[in-house]
Amino acid sequence: MPELHPLLRLPPRTDEGTVNVVVETPGGSVHKLSFDDERGVFVLKKSLPVGMTFPHDFGFVPRTKAGDGDPIDVLVLHDGPTLPGVVVEARLVGVIEAEQREKGGPPQRNDRLIAVGVKSRTFGRVHELTQLPRELVDDLERFFVSYSTALGKELRPLGRAGAERAEALLDEAVAKR
User: What is the rounded distance in angstroms from the CA atom of residue 143 to the CA atom of residue 80?
Assistant: First the structure.
């Protein structure tokens, strides 16, 4: 059995109870990057259509498994983009609950956790999704719908919930691993 890459050996949570998020795709990128755990490298998965970029850093929580079989996804709001492979200590503030369908396939849950970087000067004091401007959360939801469409999938938002629900979803993803 191959040895796990150090990023995949990180615990989902820090000793302080915050979350370790491994950035795959930096904010502002037109390229969706994914961590290939077998090779231990970041690979280009898809380029977005002209004019579309990731609004903030997008990554995953190590040692988790979401409903789609991949590690649970997290969008991290902080002061600016980082780089692939950077581990951001983050606080979950909410979730955009969603159902995703691939062409002809059955719908499956693909919730998008929203977190803030705890060291962020701009977002570091946010603890709940409701503390963010509604326009920002609306924009994030629209991004995820458009992003899924660009990947040939359909994403249907089901609702939004706060930090408590996001934490419960993370706990479920940790238990599935």
Answer: 18
Q: Please tell me the distance from the alpha carbon of residue 19 to that of residue 60, in angstroms, as a whole number.
A: 10
What is the C-alpha to C-alpha distance for residues 59 and 56, in angstroms, rounded to an integer? 10
Q: Which residues of the chain have pLDDT under 70?
A: 1-2
Choose the CATH number for 6-176 among 2.40.110.10, 3.90.80.10, 3.30.470.30, 3.40.50.1110. Answer: 3.90.80.10
**pLDDT tens readout for residues 132-142:** 999 999 999 99
Domain ranges in the chain are 6-176
Q: Is the pTM of this model over 0.70?
A: yes
Q: How far is CA 80 from the centre of its chain?
A: 16
